[in-house]
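thread from #wetlab-drylab

HS: before we spend reagent money on co-crystallization trials with nicotinamide-adenine-dinucleotide, can we at least see a predicted complex? here's what I'd submit
DV: go for it
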Amino acid sequence: MTREFTSVGVIGLGTMGAGIVEVFARNGIDVVAVDADESGVAHGKEVLAGSTGRALRREKMTQAEHDALHARVRFTTDLADLAGCQLVVEAVPEHLDLKKQIFARLDEIVGPEAVLATNTSSLPVTEIAVATRDPKRVVGMHFFNPAPVLQFVEVIRTVITADDVFEDVKALAERLGKKPVVVGDKAGFIANALLFGYLNHAVSMYESKYATREDLDAAMRFGCGYPMGPLQLLDLIGLDTAYEILDTMYKQGRDRLHAPSPIIKQMVSAGLLGRKSGRGFYTYAEPGSPEVVPDAWTPSGTLPTGVALREVASVGVVGSGTMATGIIEVFARAGHPVTFVARSDEKVAAVLTALGVVFQGAVDVVAQNAPAFVASGLVLVLLLVLMRVVGAERSHLDDLAAKVHVDEFEAAADYPRVAKFGAHLLRRGAGGDVVILGVDIQQQVAHATTDQVGLVAGSLQTLDHADGVPTDLVALEWMLATAQHFGRAAWAWSTAQR
Ligand SMILES: NC(=O)c1ccc[n+]([C@@H]2O[C@H](COP(=O)([O-])OP(=O)(O)OC[C@H]3O[C@@H](n4cnc5c(N)ncnc54)[C@H](O)[C@@H]3O)[C@@H](O)[C@H]2O)c1
């Protein structure tokens, strides 16, 4: 028979537990909320009041709903108060011995029908289960942070979990508005097994000073569309918790990706736990606050002395692929006359068709043959197209060098040709005004369209190394500022360049 859970207990009211309490109470379930001491209880109360108060102010909840929710939660420091609960979810720190100890105690407290769940991210649920007299009733119920917001829940089924137990917990998760998946008892389950290698890699890039924290986070937010950057996410998770998760996964799988980057442990030892302690990779207004405040490492946002920004008068784009088309669109939308070069009539037509759809026929287009362009002994006949969006004028390849301030190139694989073309433009008299950019470094943005302009700075250094096309600080700063001007995240491949 399916259990109807009407009374649950939550143990540990930290980052996860406080949110889990809210999830149950919002869904009409009575909650006994336990922490080890009064300060833990006070934290749980504060988090719940803060979250429900915000919902009330934003009119997502009525006063009556708010009051009823709070009336359903009873806070305590005594585990014995869990006696009447049908389900207990444990969310204490990620230490196996502590969790086993708590589960053994629960055996003495709750009734024989009660289900016991752990919110562990990586510890073996089976080992926690066998610390009890009846391991059949133990499951993993892994909420995601922040629990009231994220819909995903992993229900971990061990080899001894009774069928009805995990089915009932899965049904409960659905009733809570979550999307549960059932997964076996392997460290990290699904999401963390995939996520933590990436987070750890980001920390090692930060640790080796490969990029700043802001640039690492911007790359993944604006380049890959993630809602948070990896270091921001680690601060939210808590570095102590993250360390334990990585360490457990590493010990179980011996995958080097999960060997915790040394700086994580150092930060934990120094009390830099992330948001919850007020400082982690970033500094926060106060412990528990999501508000990032400037610190000694916050970029000033001002240009280095002697760097002056250039005006963007016109824009040239070389290439006709997915990226080139998107980039043409970005600049054209911003009101700049755009000239683009493609290798055949068909490619020109394809770009114009794509843009015509975007601009719904508002673009007045004139195409004409361009003179031959010599590169590396090969004669490339390019077709030059003038696309008029905002008062643009007819143009030829001959004067492209004098007009064009930014050149985008289609293929990362084709850097030598691109670089030679860049050198040609420089020789043609545009001098320092030409900034050569490539796109799609190592296919990182292959799927991207117009949101990726900020990423093109990365290619400057690649070009520089590959073919000696000069890149200077002024050019880079100008490009970053230009990208920002267009509302894009500006990202530099190496901080050494900034
Ligand atoms: N932080 C995350 O993003 C996240 C996400 C999913 C799962 N988890 C898992 O949730 C669990 C809790 O992690 P957290 O980040 O909330 O930790 P946390 O350090 O923020 O909170 C732990 C809480 O447990 C309390 N506590 C410690 N010992 C206790 C005891 N003996 N009895 C009662 N309460 C006790 C502490 O006072 C604290 O309030 C861990 O297993 C973690 O792996 C964490």
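DV: The domain at 197-292 is CATH 1.10.1040.10 (N-(1-d-carboxylethyl)-l-norvaline Dehydrogenase; domain 2).
HS: ok that's useful, forwarding to the group
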